[in-house]
Every structure is written in C-alpha cells, then in structure tokens.
Amino acid sequence: MDDHKSSIRQLVWSELKKVAYADSRFDFDFNEFIPNFQGSYEAAKRLMLLPIYQSAKFVFITPDNCLEDLRYKALVDGKVVLITTYAIRRGFWLLDPSQINPSSYRYVSTLDGMEQLARSISLNDMMELGLQIDLMVTGTGAINLDGIRFGKGHGFFDLEWAMLYSIGAISSTTPTAAIVHDCQVLAKQLIPESFDTVCDFVITPTKLIEVPNAKKPICGILWEKLASGMLESIPPLQELKSLINEDRVTQPDP
Q1: What are phi and psi of 140, to 5 degrees?
Q2: What confidence tens digit (pLDDT) does each residue in 140-180 have?
Q3: How do strand 185-186 and strand 176-179 relate by DSSP bridges?
Q4: Pick from 52, 129, 44: which is nearest to 94 by CA?
Q5: pTM score, two decimals?
Q6: Of 100, 98, 176, 102, nearest in space to 133 by CA
C-alpha cells in the first residue's frame, strides 16, 4: 500500500512542480511541505461559497502553503481558526479574530506570524473550552475522486483528526474539505485504511467534487502504528497519551 501511494505521489508531483510555488525553506521538496499553487485562491473561493463554510464559526485549517489565503479570509469573515505548527512539533495555535488587530490578519495567517500574534492551545485547553470544530480543511499531495488523500506520507492530518476526535472536538460527521490543484486529482482506486481521513469535498481552481458518504476514522490514535520518533517529537501526542492514562480521555475503539 505504501509503495503504491508513493508511486502515485511521484507521478503527481512531477506535474505539480509546473504550477507550484517554491517554499523558502524546502524549495520544491514536496516530501517536506504542501505547496501553494497557481489558482489556490480560486479554489478557496469555491469553498467559501459552500454552506459548510458560511455557517462555520470554528474552522481547523492545516498549515499548508496553499491555504494561507483561506486562513486570512476566514479571519476576515469572523471565524476562529485552529491550526497546527509545522509537523505539529509545537502543537496547536488558536487564531481568534476578536483578539487580533485586523491590520495583522494577513501576517497572523502565515506560519511565522501565528506564533507571534496568536495563542498556543493545548488539548486540555480545548476540552475545558468545550471546543467544537465545524469544518476541517487540508491541502494534500494528491487525492482521488473518492476523497482519499495521498499526502506527503507522514500522516499529519490523520493524526490531527485522531487527536481532535479523541477529545470530542470533532465527530464522524464533521465535514472535511481538501483544496488542491487539478493536477493533484486522480481517477485511481484506493481502499482507505482505518486511520485515513476521507474528504467530503475535493476543491480545485476549476471544479468542486462532492464525495457522498465519505468515511471518517473513529479509531483515534493507533499508537502501535506511529512512525519511530513521532511520539517524542509531537507534544500533543504526548499530552493525549497522558490524558488517556489519567482516564480523562477514553481511547476510541479501533
């Protein structure tokens, strides 16, 4: 399965490089980041026309380069945005437009800006606030017509979903959207694994694909499947493990 996904990623990335913008740290190394691309704002505007966006008060948006404009627009639209740091290494951050000067919305939507102007938030903080996320948005390396993602291969979005699901911030019915370039959408079949977060919507600069009955994982973190070193490098995973050990969070059944 992993070899199959890897070959698909390489196929897509050769085309993506033609329309992607280089990252200041990683150049065109798509193993390390999800790039911004030509037309990303047009794709974001398609999402913003959907009722799932318009009615959302609290939105999780991944730190992918292609979603910077969406994070900015969400703040302008008065939505609270939850985001993770790169590779989740410094956890989750809360971007609350009521607590940020509107002149700084653009800067706080960047990965550098959020850590200067936004608020770090733990899983325990989210539980105490009773945080409920209305919409999850991600970029990805590639995706098929059934909403099954082929990311960078690290599984960060699936970890984010699993952690938020475990603390009750999302449910199996929370809508999920992927914003991608048209070249990242493939007509290839793939059976999702139990931890794969399937997207309800695949949105490109030119089209909207709605996926009926997109299946979301309800297994929480599959601890035995974590890559070597992942638990040690991701503080929210360590926190979740402690919350489970303290019986403050129940480990979902796989």
Answers
A1: -165, 165
A2: 988 999 999 976 567 899 999 999 999 999 999 999 999 99
A3: unpaired
A4: 129
A5: 0.94
A6: 176
